[in-house]
Amino acid sequence: MTLLNSLLLGACAIGAAVAQLQCGTIEYNPALYSCYDGDFLCPIISGDATKKCGDACYDADIYDCKADSTLAEKPAEDNPFTLIAHNPLYYGINGKVINGCSRHFFLRDLPCAYCPEGIGGLDCSMFSENATVLGGISGLMTTVPGGQLFYIEPNGALGFTQAHSGSYPTGSTFGSVKAYEDGEFIIPGTSGWYACGDDNQIFAALPGLEFSCIPLRILTAEWPYGTPVWQYT
Ligand SMILES: *[C@@H]1O[C@H](CO)[C@@H](O)[C@H](O)[C@H]1NC(C)=O
């Protein structure tokens, strides 16, 4: 488990850091590390404290520490969920909801949605249109026949298909994400996500791409209110 090894190496290398507190025999900077059990340091990464499990440090949004002090990947999120931006170092974006609009995703309060009033038997007032809800690793929760899918564009943009159309940018990737229950929304092998530009558009930190944007992680939040839209636009 490379991540954990590098976290551990990080913890051993703190001797040179600005020392303010004592953890066992080691001095450490509490802005960079947490001390567990009086003698075990785990790094704080992008404002989030990793936790201790046995002899390892771990990200509690991806792993659970089992009773025997071994790590297990958290369960996949099987229920519908929304996406929440997370970066405690950026007050302006931390905890903001992520919604779809114009076939892309942004930090914004509401999705762009449409319901065709006047279709026989369809009551558009049943749609709250107040969230962008995902189900599984490539679907959006919609009502429109044919549904709508989400995917990663070659430039990293998180995108979704238009209703009644299966089209997407050439080279886009479907189903590459993992969503953990009460945890994180990730693309394995990437370092997270970015919010870019004035409208805070969401991009995946795909290997080989460079961004000068705000880094963030994305957390999942279960959505118990049913399908909120006819379709996203
Ligand atoms: C969205 O709308 C549903 C249904 O009206 C409501 O129960 C829920 O609290 C709303 N959620 C948000 C986040 O606005």
Automatic annotation (TrEMBL):
It comes from the Eukaryota. Residues 1-19 form the signal peptide. One of its GO terms (molecular function) is carbohydrate binding. Coiled coil: none annotated. The keyword Signal applies. Keywords: Signal. Residues 22-68 form the Endo-1,3(4)-beta-glucanase 1 carbohydrate binding domain. The keyword Cell cycle does not apply. PANTHER family: PROTEIN, PUTATIVE (AFU_ORTHOLOGUE AFUA_6G03560)-RELATED (PTHR42047:SF1). This is Carbohydrate-binding module family 52 protein.
